[in-house]
Amino acid sequence: MPDDDTTMNFDSKRSLGAALRALPTSAPPRDLWPGLARALNPPRRRARMLLPMSFAAAVLLALLWSLPIEHRVSPSATPSAAVVSTSNVSAPMTDSPADRELDRLRARSQMIERWLQATSAQAPHDGRDLMAAAEVEDMVGLVDVQLSATRNDSDALPLWRQRVALLEDLSAIRAAPAALNLGDANRGLASAAATL
Amino acid sequence: MNVSASNFQIEIPETVLARARRGDNAAFETIYRAFERPAYTLALRMSGDRDDACEIVHDAMLRVLQRIAQFRGESPFWGWVRQIVANEALMRMRRNGGRVFESIDAESVELHSNDLRVEPPSTSIWPDARGLDHALNALPSLTRSVLWLYHVEGYTHPEIAEMTGKTVSFSKSQVARGTARLRTLLDPLKEAASCLMTTPP
Predict the structure, then answer these.
(1) DSSP-derived 3-state class of residue B24
(2) What's the gap in Å between the CA of A3 and the closest CA on chain B?
(3) Which residue of B has its CA nearest to A30?
(4) How far apart are CA A20 and CA B125, in angstroms?
(5) pTM of the model
(6) Cα gap A132→A173, rounded to integer Å
(7) ipTM of the complex
């Protein structure tokens, strides 16, 4: 409510305020919603890649099922889906640089996924972040499909690199709201401490 | 959705807000449609330009919808939306520089002490909406904004001072001077008299 001031009397304020409030409201000359909707959901940069990748994955799966079972890699060495824990992944103990990198990538993948699971419940998202996160999760899923079709570690290595990079993208999307939450929590603690 | 007498006082159901927090596009549109007119009216009154007002509404509502997860519900949602729209309008006015971020200063209008105190205008001085609209648009943008925020949106002088980055006395003087200017603009006889009394250079 307007506070009192000494420059005008009550009648003046009331009459001018009432006259201004009585002015008709205006609508925008054009519908602004389509532009807003576009700004809220920008065209997906990677969407063009998604269809060909899905097709490639489908072909790969078909090939996989046509292969004799003994040529497939152990399911325990591949992730099952996007943002699903890989805690049961058992990395073989080897000494070659490629194997060491593979071990390191699997460990990093597990670590990021644990963090994502821990923050997914508490981190609020705006619409754009949710869309971006869903898109990256789709792509992680596609990489997992390809990983499940690999026959050896040298084939799997670039896919694990890609998987970790995508998980890092996903964690970056989640990081901002989580940090905000943390900031709010800290502020809450500070104010609680101040009242004690 | 309950719409009260004040344009911005629109209650958005908590279910719609919850959906919007989850990024639901339909909920976004519901919220935008609810505040479309009050937001545009405020932006237009403050900026005085239709194109600027459209851009203010676009940018402000984008900010509202992108940050809706940060709305904690400690104050009414409509108040949060209105604050963002008003801030966006003031920011744009500042960005546009002195051309539009103008106010009535002490020298630009000859005011007698009575103008700032107790001269009660007759209630019939404000009846013509078209005339009032025209006179309002003739005010400098910052004066008009302060007048509108104070009289129509109900902000206090300290709140207006904080929003505009000016002092409380500046806000009070803009309300007083803006009112006096409106009164002059709406009273042709007084305006003509003041013209006749002006000494030629």
Answers:
(1) coil
(2) 5
(3) B54
(4) 12
(5) 0.55
(6) 8
(7) 0.77
